[in-house]
Amino acid sequence: MSPASTGASTAVDAVMSVPSSGSPADTRMTPGAPGYRRMSLALFLAGVATFALLYSTQALLPLISGEFGVAASEASWTVAAATGGLALFVLPMSALSERFGRRAVMTGSLAVAVTVGMLVPFAPSIGVLVVLRAVQGAALAGLPASAQAYLAEEVRPKALVTAIGLFVAGNSVGGMSGRVITGWVAQEWGWRVSVGVIGAIAVACAVAFRLLLPAPRHFEAGSLRPRVLLGTVRGHLSDPLLRRLYAIGALFMTVFGGVYTVIGYRLTGAPFGLPQGIVGSIFLVYLVGTVSASAAGRLVGRLGRRGALYLAGGTTAAGLLLSLADTLPLVLLGLVLITAGFFAGHAVASSAVSKTATRGRAQASALYQSAYYIGSSAGSTVGAIAFHASGWAGTVTVGVLAVLGVVTITVLGTRAARVAARREPAAAH
């Protein structure tokens, strides 16, 4: 997945270069520097709140289906609407962050999202619930792209993969804790109380985030003029490397969205018949994602970006195939591998986007996030439809096809890099 053009290669070199003494970039943070821990904790908590809210209904879909009398494919829209709302609004919200600042947009987004989160438990119908979830997802759109742009501006390049990995780790903790908590609370008091508890936790995370996040020191306000924004977006979409990274993010999330939307139905049905609390606890495997996302920087250092993506894709595919077994330990092992591969691949791809874009970073990250959450919505919907038609094997088939897409794109990127490498010596002569 190396750049396919000299311009893209130059962009990566510019971001990865070490600034000379006395330049403004010398003040960017590194691990151990003042404010780095506060920043890391603040964005970790933002990641927790984002994923806890975004997927708060995912582990509860069988209960929602039961209360409203709808099928899995219909109940899955409570997840798909949230991720779809985020995908649609992430680019406009990133534009606002270019003008008004990353911290301001992230704070406002969390404030709206947690407010809507406190209304979700009172939804009188599946239609209202889907609408509220769509609004919540749109509000959360201000977090992912703005957070990555904030890190790209405030953290030195060599520490960027690790910093973004910590933010992604917060996503995994939020996704895990949200599903585990909702599972056990719902078993005793129903799904409405459980999503209310998640809303209260998100409020606490939002307050702590605002108190902890250091004021940005390297933000420069951009323009909100449509012509300027469209030019920036066109520039990013014309970069072959960025296009490949966007597609990879979408395909990884297609796997993840499909698997975790449907897994509750599989484990509560035959041959497992697990209670809701136990099904919620299955999401403890997200802790594996916390580790793999945090280790993404070291993985890239040892294997390179393409090698890390091959490993992430292979791990995910192995997990999908293992999950076909009707033995619970093998299913759990499969989920562990799927989760580890997904979070590693996501951290590698998203950090590569932040490194590659030297201007309009929020828009570059927003395009990645948009593709990523479109993949989530597609995975949730198509995975549920496939499950309804062919059972768990149908969902796994969707996932395997998505992983094959990741591998194919990475192979094409490898070939493009080799062609570019052969051309450079010829051009020098």
List keywords for this structure.
0% strand, mainly alpha, cell membrane, MFS, Sugar_transporter_CS, 429 residues, Growth Hormone, Chain: A, 18 helices
Strand and helix layout:
Layout (H helix, E strand, L loop, with lengths): L5 H11 L19 H19 L6 H8 L3 H4 L1 H24 L1 H16 L8 H15 L3 H11 L5 H30 L1 H22 L13 H12 L2 H29 L7 H6 L4 H9 L1 H27 L5 H29 L4 H30 L1 H37 L1
Helix pairs in contact: 2-6, 2-9, 2-10, 5-6, 5-7, 5-17, 6-7, 6-8, 6-10, 8-9, 8-17, 9-10, 9-14, 9-16, 12-16, 12-17, 12-18, 14-16, 15-16, 15-18, 17-18
Notes on the protein architecture:
There is one protein chain. The chain is mainly α and 429 residues long. It has a single domain (31-216, 233-428), classed as MFS general substrate transporter like domains (Growth Hormone, Chain: A). It is 79% helix and 0% strand. It has helices at 6-16, 36-54, 61-68, 72-75, 77-100, 102-117, 126-140, 144-154, 160-189, 191-212, 226-237, 240-268, 276-281, 286-294, 296-322, 328-356, 361-390, 392-428. Helix 12 (240-268) packs antiparallel against helix 16. The longest helix has 37 residues, at 392-428. The radius of gyration is 21 Å and the shape is globular. This is MFS transporter. Residues 35-417 form the Major facilitator superfamily (MFS) profile domain. It is found in: Cell membrane.
